[in-house]
Amino acid sequence: MADFLIAPSVLSADFARLGAEVDAVLDAGADVVHFDVMDNHYVPNLTVGPLVCDALRRYGVQAPIDVHLMVKPVDRLVEEFAAAGASWISFHPEASEHAHRTISLIREVGCRPGLVLNPATPLSCLDHVLDDLDLVLVMSVNPGFGGQAFIPSSLDKLRAVRERITASGRAIRLEVDGGIKPTNIGAVAAAGADTFVAGSAIFGSADYAATIASMRKELAAAAPSAAVAGLS
Asked: Which of 71, 75, 84, 208 has a CB 3.0–4.6 Å from the CB of 53, allowing a cystine?
């Protein structure tokens, strides 16, 4: 089976008991903690910063923390999140004056760099940086709010990015964020994604383990199609 990762977004968790919520989804079978950082500037919402990431590490969370920066400017927060325990750090090319410099900074501070593509971001932004990335994150909603519906054209974008990753010959993860749930995760995997951010679909469910198990079942069924798409 392909190496699929499920990454619940803490944006949809109960912040009054965040540590326990993260423990619960990891115990339920999640792989990665997804951390949505919004600044009420690049996107119209305000969420969490490095102190919360650090608090989760001090609480005892050992799983990878996948930090998605929806902020402008980017670079100063890169260093702060690295110090707070981030594993991956992704950013939007529109929010950085020099994308290659930001990618280099993320790697210099010991994290794995990712680039985020909004629904209207052209794939040409990958032309000169793909070989420097460990992750490409395709947004299947417009960034800024949780609970939005999946944009169907994102499937075509995922296929196109997967083709580029396969052609590069590098082990670059292809992540998708926005409207992911058990009923569409199989189609998203078949389009080439291997890492799946899900917020309200998991944290809004009555049984985290049952929801994640349902996602795993759909991913297992999609594995042969994912292999054809170039994910091995």
From this structure: 84
Catalytic residue positions, numbered: 36, 177
Structure tokens at 43: 């996107």
C-alpha distances (whole Å) from 90 to each of 69, 75, 99, 105, 106 are 6, 11, 11, 12, 9
Asked if 185 contacts 178 with a C-beta cutoff of 8 angstroms, the reply is no
- Give me the domains of the chain, ranges plus CATH numbers: 5-229 (3.20.20.70)
Mean of the per-residue pLDDT values of the chain: 95
Element (H, E) at 177: strand 173-177
Pairwise CA distance, residues 146 & 50, whole Å: 20
| Alpha-carbon dihedral sign for residues 85, 88, 90, 96 | positive
